[in-house]
Amino acid sequence: EMLATLDIGGTKVAAALTQSGRVLERRQLPMVSQREDLQPLLASLLQGWEGIQKIGVATTGYVQQGRVYSVNHDIIGFWNGLPLQDILRSICDVPVVMLNDAQAAAWGEYLARQQDGNGPADLMFITLSTGIGGGLVLNHRLRTGQAGLAGHIGHIPSHIRSMDGQLRCGCGQTGCLELIASGTGLARQASTLMGETCDSRSLFMLAQQHPAAERLIQHAADAVAAMLASQHLALDLQEIVIGGSVGMAPGMLERIQRAFSRIPIPAAPVISAARCGADAGLAGIMHWAGARS
Ligand code: ADP
Ligand code: ZN
In the chain, which end has fewer C-beta atoms inside a 10 angstrom radius, N or C? Predict the structure, then answer.
């Protein structure tokens, strides 16, 4: 089967043409900020791929009946019930299967571990990226939830505050984890604290020489670890997988592991890196869509 897969993030859109689980071609373009630019972007990603029989989409936001909605309107302003499925079908008229991106990544990471024979039954994936997303596999099943919302842990308020005092989140709540430990949140705090524009990637480079940069990243890791600990108390997880460009940035996993180990909770899960790396969402949606019509 020829399956085209898309992973739509707040910053980038990745695409892969796959046949029977093998990747034939991979493409990537920056995400657009205007609604009218989305259809042309998706069309150019799928351009020239002959014989597509199905499209699998992993996307930021939550998915309901072919439409996407965002929890945080600051990430993609036009994710307000956008009929993404219809937009794709206007480009390529084949069945479209959609899933939240972090849910897809959770499924991809779960399947990657099942190949070893003794993979976990209960796993959480967290992506630290433009925003913060999460996905849950419980008792070997992906939890999407009735509304498609399951795993949106970036919008659970953290008892740890952001270092720049920002409290208002784009979702309408106060003190969400995403304000502290997402790429957007780190860049905002770094820019405020250091008085000049600084993105998340440069912050990690600065951390090697500048204690203030290191403290900011460590603070984010502490907030992530505290959130994961409370998730573990609710769900009794066997493994927590860290992904996203910020989650995979130098030393971030180790900082989260160290912070987690200082929290006194029983039966601590393994905290590991995404085995599929940046392709976790694509891998997950490939398997998920491949098994569905
Ligand atoms: P998306 O949110 O589109 O899925 P990513 O997982 O790549 O994409 O996350 C994008 C965020 O990660 C941006 O805020 C970006 O600044 C940040 N980022 C990208 N590369 C790095 C890096 N090497 N180190 C730290 N942060 C990074
Ligand atoms: Zn929020």
Answer: C
Band of pLDDT at residue 117, cut at 50, 70 and 90: confident
Residues 6+ apart with CB under 8 A from 99: 56, 57, 58, 59, 63, 107, 144, 284, 285, 288
Indicate which atom in ligand 1 lies nearest the CA of residue 203.
25
Query: Of the bound ligands, which one is closest to the alpha carbon of residue 177?
Result: 2
Give yes or no for residue 249 CB within 6 A of ligand 1. yes
Q: What pLDDT is attached to residue 31?
A: 98
Three-class SS of residue 238? coil
Instruction: Specify the DSSP element, H or E, that contains 255.
Output: helix 252-261
Categorize the per-residue pLDDT at 201 as very low, low, confident or very high, splitting at 50, 70 and 90. Answer: very high
Determine the Cα–Cα distance for residues 219 and 213; give it in Å rounded to an integer.
10
CB 98 within 8 A of CB 7: no
Beta bridge partners of 244: none
In terms of Cα–Cα distance, which of 266, 219, 270 is closest to 242?
Answer: 270
Average pLDDT in the chain: 97
Statement: the pTM of the whole predicted model exceeds 0.90? yes
- Complex-level ipTM beyond the 0.85 threshold: yes
Q: Which atom of ligand 1 is nearest to the CA of 11?
A: 3
Query: Residue by residue, what is the 3-state secondary structure of 157-179?
Result: ECCCCCCCCCCECCCCCECECHH
